[in-house]
Write a sequence for this structure.
C-alpha cells in the first residue's frame, strides 16, 4: 500500500483540510481511494505511512501542529524534516523510552544519527513516518564529531 498526498501541501490546501489518496502498489488494478482526511486542528488524524512511500509524498505538517501534538499524548519526533510518530514505538525503543520522551515534538536529527545508521532508519524509522515539515529547530547545537586532531604516532 502506498500514499499519494500532494493535496495536503500548503499550496494545494483548500479549506484547511486535505485528502490522502490511498494507492495500492501491490494491487495495480485497484483504483485509488480517498481513505481519510487529515485535519490540521487534530494531530491524531495523521496516520503512519508504509515503507515504500517516498518522503516527497508525505503530507506537510505545520510546525504549530507538531507543537500541539505534544499536548495530546502523541510522541512525535522530527528527524531531517520528517515527522515520526513514536507514540507506541517508545515502549519498544532499545535505547529506552526516556531519551525519546525528552525530544517530544522536537528536532533530534543529529542525535539520531549519532546512535543509528541507515539500517535502523529503514527498518524501524520508515514505518513511523507521518509527514514532513520545516522550521522545527534542534534545541542543542551539534558538537563536532572529532574534538581536535592528535598525532597518531611519534612523540606526543
Ligand atoms: C524514529 C526514531 C528512532 C528509532 C526508529 C530508533 C530505533 C532504534 C533502534 C532500532 C535501536 C537498536 C540499535 C541496535 O541495537 O543496533 C536503537 C537504539 C538506541 N537509540 Fe534509538 N531510535 C530512534 C530515536 C532515537 C533518538 C532520538 C535517540 C536520542 C539520542 C536514540 C537513542 C538511542 C540509543 C542511545 C540507543 C542504544 C544504542 C546502543 O545500545 O548502542 N534513538 N534505536
Amino acid at each position: 500500500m502506498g500514499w499519494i498526498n500532494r493535496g495536503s501541501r500548503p499550496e494545494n490546501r483548500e479549506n484547511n483540510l486535505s485528502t490522502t489518496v490511498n494507492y495500492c502498489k501491490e494491487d495495480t488494478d485497484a483504483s485509488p481511494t480517498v481513505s481519510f482526511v487529515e485535519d490540521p486542528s487534530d494531530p491524531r488524524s495523521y496516520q503512519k505511512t508504509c515503507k515504500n512511500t517516498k518522503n516527497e509524498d508525505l503530507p506537510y505538517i505545520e510546525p504549530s501542529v507538531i507543537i500541539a501534538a505534544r499536548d495530546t499524548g502523541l510522541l512525535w519526533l522530527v528527524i531531517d524534516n520528517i515527522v515520526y510518530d513514536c507514540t507506541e514505538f517508545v515502549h519498544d525503543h532499545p535505547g529506552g523510552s526516556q531519551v525519546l520522551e525528552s525530544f517530544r515534538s522536537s528536532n533530534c536529527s543529529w542525535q539520531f544519527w549519532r546512535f543509528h545508521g541507515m539500517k535502523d532508519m529503514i527498518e524501524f524509522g520508515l514505518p513511523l513516518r507521518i509527514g514532513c515539515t520545516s522550521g522545527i529547530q534542534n534545541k542543542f547545537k551539534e558538537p563536532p564529531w572529532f574534538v581536535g586532531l592528535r598525532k597518531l604516532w611519534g612523540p606526543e
In short: Residues 1-30 have pLDDT under 50 and may be disordered. The chain is about 15% helix and 20% strand.
